[in-house]
Amino acid sequence: MPPKARRKDLDCAKGLGILLVVLGHLASGASAPPSGNDWYIYLREGLYEFHMPFFMYLSGYVTFLSGAARTSLPQWPTLVRKRATRLLLPFLIFGLFIVAGKWTASQMFHVDNMPASISQAMIGLIWLTDYSPATSVWYIAVLFVFCVVTPLLLRLTGNRVLPLLAFAAVLYFCPIPHVLYLNRVAGFYVFFMVGGLCSEHERSWLAWNDRHVFLLLAVFTLVVVTFALPTFQALTWQEKTLIAGILSMPALHAWVRRPLLLESAALLRLGIFSFVIYLLNTPCIGLVKGVLLKWMPWDGVNFLVYAPLLMLAGTYGPITIKHCLLRPLPLIDRITD
Predict the structure, then answer these.
(1) How far is the C-alpha of 323 from the C-alpha of 211, rounded, in Å?
(2) What pLDDT does 76 receive?
(3) pLDDT at 5
(4) pLDDT by 10-residue block (mean), the chain, 337 residues
(5) Cα–Cα dist 145/149, whole Å
(6) Could you tell me if 76 and 152 are in contact, meaning their C-beta atoms sit under 8 angstroms apart?
(7) On the CB side of 11, how many CA atoms lie within 13 Å of its CA?
(8) How far apart (Å, rounded) are the C-alpha atoms in residues 86 and 108?
(9) 264 Ramachandran zone, left/alpha/beta (phi>0; psi -120 to 50)
(10) CB neighbourhood size of 92 (10 A)
(11) Residue 140's CB: how many other CB atoms inside 10 A?
């Protein structure tokens, strides 16, 4: 959205969302999780059931709110060009940067999810994406697809959102090849479209959320916690993600509209810089973790030292890089805003 049209509740929601993403990335990739810290393992599993669906909800919400989802056919090529610059270009630049960074860092310390060769890295980044050495940037490639296909699909439904949401729900359960991020396109479009539907009915949606905020939070929290119990292990990850993801949308959006979070300068700052944090949080976390592992293991009580340091690295590291290194580079600065 244009800067003059920024919404504080949406920026704070993005701030909360990116905070959850960074928290989930503290022990991501191929590394063994910190032993003796089962609390974090359960926390991470719970986060992965809803944090990206919530981000997709916000993306759909903003896309429809800005009017981009209803771009006319004559303006569609312009939309594609702008979204390619805004999303595909950062995907390629920072995907390659992460690969190069891993090769460089691997000469000094352990690096997670290290590709065996440059060709394997390129194949994983673009084609066999389950093996991507830069899995952290998948979201922007998938978001590009959503942004450019939604106006065309809406034309087919007569500009009606509900039929497209029904299509996305069916797509969610379809077996899709794990190439070109197509499985993630199919797995997250429903959350993007829920965000679009809520944006279309924003006044009643937000009013209902605000009235029931504590009940929504209680139900959402209860469901995520109970999913970790043995009784619910029969549920697939797909089923858990659909339920927890949908419940997270009204609960977390309503929560950030409460005065305590809505007036949080830190949360607002994280939201405004959420894109560059998303792009660079894993390299920053990996760099700090690699250095710390030279001094002490991260198992047991040591993880209580690691966790806050890695959270700071993953959130304020990218912001510092943005200010100090990316500002002098006009193109890179612009596409990471």
Answers:
(1) 40
(2) 96
(3) 61
(4) 70 96 81 82 91 96 95 95 93 84 72 72 81 82 96 94 96 92 95 97 96 97 90 88 96 96 94 94 90 89 93 96 91 87
(5) 6
(6) yes
(7) 21
(8) 33
(9) beta
(10) 16
(11) 22
Under 8 Å CB-to-CB from 244, ≥6 apart: which residues? 46, 49, 50, 53, 220, 223, 224, 227
Domain map (residue ranges) of the chain: 3-335
Please list, in sequence order, all residues whose beta carbon lies within 8 angstroms of the beta carbon of residue 295, skipping any fewer than 6 positions away: none
Give the pLDDT score at 110: 65
CA distance between the termini of the chain: 11
* Structure token digits, residue 1: 């959205």
Q: Is the dihedral of CA 218, 220, 225, 231 positive or negative?
A: positive
By the 10 Å C-beta count (0-12 exposed, 13-18 middle, 19+ buried), 66 is classed as middle
Tokens 């943005």 belong to residue: 322
The one-letter amino acid code at 153 reads L
pLDDT score at 294: 87
Encoded amino acid at 246, one letter: I
Q: Mark residue 159 as left, alpha or beta (left: phi above 0; alpha: psi -120 to 50; beta: remaining).
A: left
- Check: CB of residue 18 under 8 Å from CB of residue 270: yes
Q: What are the tokens at 27?
A: 């022990």
Alpha helices (runs of H) in 201-273, residue ranges in sequence order: 202-211, 213-226, 237-256, 259-262, 265-272
Task: Return the pLDDT at 135.
Answer: 75
Q: In the numeric block, which tokens belong to residue 204?
A: 């009643």
CB 193 within 8 A of CB 161: yes
Amino acid identity, position 332: I
pTM above 0.90, yes or no: yes
Phi-psi region of 149 (alpha: psi -120 to 50; beta: other; left: phi over 0): alpha
Tokens of 130: 């389950």
C-alpha gyration radius of the chain = 20
Residue 220's alpha-carbon distances to 41, 148, 227, 276, 326, in angstroms, are 19, 32, 11, 29, 38
Q: What per-residue confidence (pLDDT) applies to 3?
A: 45
